[in-house]
Structures are given as C-alpha cells and as structure tokens.
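Contributing new records

If you add data, match the layout below exactly. Sequence lines come first and carry their own label; structure lines follow with theirs. Keep one chain per record. Anything else will be rejected by the validation script.
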Amino acid sequence: MGPAARWETRVRGALIALFALAGVAAGIAAERGFPDDTTLLLDARPMRGSKRVPILQIESKGEASIDLWCNRVPAQLVVVEETITILLGTPTAQQCDSDRMQADVDLLAALQQVSTWRRQDDLLVLQGERTLRFYIGTN
C-alpha cells in the first residue's frame, strides 16, 4: 500500500470516528433535551383510597394534557432553552372529595408558577415557587 492509500485509509478512519462521536453526542443531547412525546408521572404517592397520581402527557409542539388528582386540564408548554411557561386550559368539572379537589387547585397553582426545567436522570424537574418532579415514562 502506497503513501496516498495509507493517507486515505487514515482520513477515512478519522471521519468514521468523528461521525461516531457526533452520533453519541447527539444521543446524549436528545436524552437531556425536553421530553416531547412523553408520558410523565408526578413523583408523589397516591392519595388515600386511590391509586391515581397526576400524569403529564406531552405531545409534539408543546401540546399537553394533565391528569390531576381528580380532573384533567389541557395545556400548552412553551419551552425555550431551560425556561418553560405552562399555559393551562379549563379543567374538567368532575366532582371528587374535597382533598382531591384542593390538591388539583394546589397543583394547578404550582404549575402556573413554573419558570425553568431540567432533566435529572429519569426525572423532569419543573422549578417555580415549588419544585415538581415527574418521572419520565420508559415504555
């Protein structure tokens, strides 16, 4: 093999390594990016007498629905880098016991105060006056 062929082989090998590293970096960035098209569970225990915990379903383009302790509310998430604004729609009008209804009010208030987000392992952490932690679905 001549010098030109060896040089081509080295360049080709370097390009393959560079593309492999770029693919790994893109994969890491995607893991750390905002979890679009994902179902997330609030890091909380179910309320007494129920198995339900709030669920945040995020679709593409920031469309979302939030299953609260009792009701459901549509939402729009506006994400720019590490900042987030959650625009809430009108919740359903289901009647539950007073503890669940008050928990809905409290969670909606906390969601409206969220201003930043970050990924922490398998969690999406929403930060406002109160920190909300949602487990990212793995299915």
